[in-house]
Write a structure and sequence with these properties.
By secondary structure, this protein is of the alpha/beta class. 34% of the residues lie in helices and 18% in strands. The protein has a single domain, classed as Rossmann fold, CATH 3.40.50.1100. The protein has 13 helices and 18 strands. The strands form five sheets. It has a six-stranded mixed sheet with strand order 4-5-16-13-14-15, with helices on both faces. Helix 3 links the parallel strand 8 and strand 9. Helix 2 crosses helix 3. The protein is globular, with a radius of gyration of 20 Å.
């Protein structure tokens, strides 16, 4: 693929392992030096937190985003202090980061998921007119976000999603012809989508989005904390979120590190309280061992367990747990913890949120709320503590009822038995 010369950037990339500084061209995903796996982070020229008050969308945090330009059509989440749900949970100070569609509250993420925060930041990091086609694997929500963003930004994109995630691929607009959707039939899962995307990204004229290795993805998701700080005026003591890969939690951790370095918001990182959905809990199981080694799960066992959970979007069986700067480090450094809740608890939490806050939330947000309620009941949240709950998606049922969202139609379907054949790559490449 022809890569244009690097544009002038307001940041440089730095490797967490060797501190090597790398000039960004919008495509770099890793450090070229030989050492243990490690994430790259962005070091910004402006080390002070200074939101751009002239903007109301995601890009008001542009000085702390690894981007080359700002884009149109972008929304934002919203942070507000809860009263009724806080009382139900027995908490003195509960703040909700609502990252979905709730314009009355200021949340304007059109597809109803916080994955829009990563999609727009990833695209804004790319050169103005990238050559080739962006390849993305998704469990569902990321597909919805990138399908809309790439359609509006006129970026050629190929998205691969398992059947279990197709229902989440919703958008208020028609998908553009330069955005193609490939669905892997049941029982294929997210791991199969990742594998096929990896093979395609090695084909000429395709390039990988990179998943959690993409510094822009993590930074975009980390704006959840920046928005919360801008509203609350302080860092929270506890941060609750449901996780599949943990990219959002790592992004929040990286943003918290920068805010502590800023010096104006204290020296205490928020404790990351991350949750998964029983019985698919690889991060929870790994954390419980006390080791930074990811517990391995048999592929067929993983498929069966993933099929049982309320939240297929959390079914990543290759999360970045052990990598330097990954989930283990974020939990350990912040003094955080992993929690796990079952489907019944998540359903109850989902109903409780709608009853007290007045809007629907996605199952992943319900898992996070269920874990918060569990932690509060168990006395694991200090009295008087400030708690931030990231509701990673919501308002979609409302938009569906209003007829404001439409379901996606696949451009091609591939049976699981065909995924490992060269013909699958040729079939998708023909799109």
């Amino acid at each position: 693929m022809l890569v244009p010369r690097p544009e002038a950037r307001h940041y440089a990339l730095r490797c967490r392992a060797c501190n090597r500084v790398i000039e960004d061209d919008g495509f770099v995903l890793g450090c070229p030096s030989p050492h243990e796996p490690a994430f790259l982070v962005a070091d910004y020229h402006n080390r002070r937190f200074q939101p751009d008050r002239s903007s109301a969308d995601l890009f008001r945090f542009h000085s702390w985003l690894p981007i080359g330009r700002r884009m149109a059509g972008v929304g934002s989440g919203a942070t507000y202090r809860s009263e009724r749900l806080a009382r139900a949970a027995g908490l003195d100070e509960l703040w909700i980061a609502f990252n979905g569609w709730w314009p009355e509250r200021g949340a304007t993420l059109a597809t109803g998921t916080f994955k829009e925060l990563e999609a727009w930041t990833v695209l804004a990091r790319l050169p103005q007119r990238p050559a080739g086609t962006l390849v993305i694997a998704s469990a569902g929500n990321t597909a919805a976000a990138f399908a809309r963003a790439c359609s509006l930004a006129e970026v050629a994109c190929l998205i691969i999603v398992p059947e279990s995630g197709l229902a989440q691929v919703l958008s208020p607009e028609e998908r553009a012809p330069w955005v193609k959707l490939v669905v892997l039939d049941h029982p294929a899962d997210y791991a199969d989508a990742i594998a096929l995307a990896g093979w395609l990204a090695e084909v000429e004229k395709y390039y990988p989005e990179g998943g959690v290795r993409n510094v822009a993805r993590r930074a975009g998701l980390g704006t959840v904390l920046l928005d919360a700080l801008d509203t609350m005026g302080r860092l929270p003591d506890y941060y609750f979120q449901a996780v599949g890969s943990g990219a959002g939690a790592i992004g929040v951790f990286e943003a918290a590190e920068r805010l502590v370095e800023d010096g104006g918001f204290g020296d205490q990182l928020p404790r990351l309280m991350l949750s998964q959905n029983h019985p698919f809990t690889p991060l929870y199981d790994s954390w419980r061992t006390g080791s930074r080694v990811l517990v391995r799960m048999d592929a067929e066992v993983a498929r069966r367990r993933a099929a049982q959970i309320l939240t297929p979007v959390l079914s990543n069986r290759q999360p970045p747990y052990a990598i330097l700067g990954g989930v283990y480090d974020a939990l350990h450094t912040s003094g955080g913890d992993m929690l796990a809740v079952d489907n019944a608890a998540a359903r109850q939490a989902r109903a409780l949120f709608e009853e007290h806050e007045g809007i629907d939330i996605d199952p992943a947000g319900a898992v996070a709320l269920a874990s918060l309620l569990q932690a509060a009941r168990d006395g694991r949240i200090a009295k008087g503590a400030t708690v931030l709950l990231n509701v990673t998606g919501g308002g979609r049922e409302r938009r569906l009822r209003e007829g404001s969202l439409r379901h996606a139609r696949p451009d091609v379907r591939i049976a699981r038995s065909e995924i490992r054949r060269s013909g699958a790559v040729e079939m998708v490449g023909a799109l």
